[in-house]
Amino acid sequence: MVERGGESTVPISVLGFYAALVLWGVLIARGLSRPREWSLVAAIGLVLLLFLNVRYLIEGAPAGIAFFVSLYDVFDNMGLSMGETPAAMAACVGNACSLWGDTYTLHQSWGVAFFDRFVSAPALRTNALYIHLACNSVAFVLMHVQLLWSDRASRVISHAWLGRLTMMFLTIGTGAALYLASEHDAVREYGGIWAEWGFYSMSLCVFGAAMMGWRMARRGDWGMHRVWMIRFAGAMYGAFWLFRALLVVTGPLFREWETVSLLISIWASAPLGLLIAEGLRRRWDSRSSKASAVSLSS
Ligand code: HEM
User: Fold this and answer.
1) What are phi and psi of 237, to 5 degrees?
2) Is residue 290 part of a domain?
3) Which of 52, 176, 188, 249 is buried most deeply by CB count within 10 Å?
4) Protein residue closest via CA to atom 16 of ligand 1
5) Considering the chain, what is the average pLDDT of its residues?
């Protein structure tokens, strides 16, 4: 149970989420040699993503952010001695930006700024965040239906219509992200103008890949449509999962350099995700062309 006000506490929900992530990690590792298990891996990933994102809509932005910041507190405070305050870490008013109570009173300064931005924010800012995370979460789920389960889904709704719906949610979600990013020049703890333009570049990477996929479909070039949509999926995984996973490592590593760890995630996550997806696709394609060459020659 979580208590506040000077008590050291252990938030069970955070520990439970760590346990779920470990289980997911094991399944991902197994999935590398068992492609048939990917559907399960993807489904569990979607449940975890929705667990993180839907809580904003239920509990409100400050509570959602406090949970998010709490996920990093353990790693960022590792090895810190009493009274030490690294340059990239700060306290927040009443320690309300975390669920750890007095266990951890220092947090990444971007986490404190993130909480402060939404704790008594203008309605437009809060609504932009809700629209962004809701629309991008829906686009994330639909993208899986298109790529992994489109045979089954096409019995209910056509691939083309689902694609248009995915693009619509992605456009609205990215539009809201652009609005949020346009305010970041005033947020020093994020990296100011570097964070603002980093999020613009992230939007370009994700949305640009989706637009290329859409263009190829309009041309009837189904081979390149598939290529670009796999790249788009990689950029989405990068923007969401890689962005957050990188912070676990770079946060403690760069805690003497404020903004470095967040800026790495902002600038690198989506392009890195796209490149990884491209590399995996090439590997699958060369394997399946080798397999069909073998079956033809036998
Ligand atoms: C197009 C790529 C993306 C961009 C440019 C982007 C940008 C942003 C920005 C600017 C914020 C708010 C930070 C603030 O204003 O203080 C944010 C937060 C958030 N975004 Fe995105 N985002 C992208 C992709 C995604 C995706 C694919 C999802 C979900 C599937 C997502 C879910 C969230 C969530 C849940 C938050 C709140 C922080 C958290 O709990 O992680 N974003 N994003």
Assistant:
1) -60, -40
2) no
3) 176
4) 114
5) 93
